[in-house]
Design a protein that fits this description.
Layout: H1 2-18, H2 38-41, H3 44-64, H4 70-75, H5 77-102, H6 109-134, H7 138-152, H8 154-168, H9 173-183, H10 186-212
Helix pairs in contact: 1-3, 3-5, 5-6, 6-7, 6-9, 7-10, 8-9
């Protein structure tokens, strides 16, 4: 079951990682961009940040999931470090662009706050992951990376929740999008914290067993 979960984790990460290529192959007004105004779609600055966001966001998806591979860390720590640096730089570029784009989010203030807070937290958690590993605080680094990639995975959960709300619950696009602007990342962070707490519990149990022996 654990192996299946890892496979699904990797597959979804890779699929969403290559997804931005679609924007170069189809009409740009299809999909989520269909909700944007013509004036915004003619804004070159907005489009620059849009491509920056999805382009480097793709890099975070493609590199981030590998950071959780124990085999990679054990067999080649240098590759782990290089991919980690690529991930951190990509988050900085995609996250700052995402913050800019949040001011133009479909649905107004509710969506803007949702996506904006997510972008800020994404950059902060990634920065903390970088700082802690530089200090040699490996456990803290791993915990911050879990939080960071949970926010990164909002790209996946957004694409799961949006059609679910529309098809499964019969909501219109705007209503679904307002909910998704929070739903795509808040539960992810909750799951991340549960994973971290479970890890702490396991370590404390192991320490107790070691002392008793």
């Amino acid at each position: 079951m654990k192996k299946l979960g890892w496979v699904l984790f990797g597959v979804f990460s890779l699929l969403i990682g290559v997804y931005p290529v679609v924007y170069f192959l189809i009409d740009m007004k299809q999909g989520l961009l269909g909700s944007k105004s013509e004036d915004l779609l003619q804004n070159e600055v907005w489009f620059w940040f849009f491509y920056q966001h999805i382009g480097f966001g793709a890099m975070t998806m493609l590199t981030g999931w590998t950071q959780f591979s124990r085999k990679l860390r054990v067999r080649n720590i240098n590759i782990h470090k290089v991919l980690g640096k690529i991930y951190v730089i990509s988050v900085l570029l995609s996250g700052t662009a995402g913050l800019y784009l949040s001011f133009y989010a479909t649905g107004g203030l509710i969506a803007s706050f949702g996506f904006g807070i997510m972008a800020v937290l994404w950059v902060i958690t990634t920065f903390m992951a970088f700082i802690t590993v530089k200090k040699g605080e490996i456990t803290a680094h791993q915990q911050w990376m879990i939080r960071s990639y949970a926010l990164c995975w909002a790209a996946v959960t957004l694409r799961i929740w949006l059609p679910t709300l529309q098809i499964g619950f019969g909501l219109d696009f705007i209503s679904s999008y307002l909910i998704v602007s929070w739903l795509c990342w808040v539960p992810n962070l909750i799951v991340a914290e549960l994973i971290i707490l479970n890890g702490k519990s396991s370590r404390n149990t192991n320490i107790s067993l070691s002392k008793s022996n």
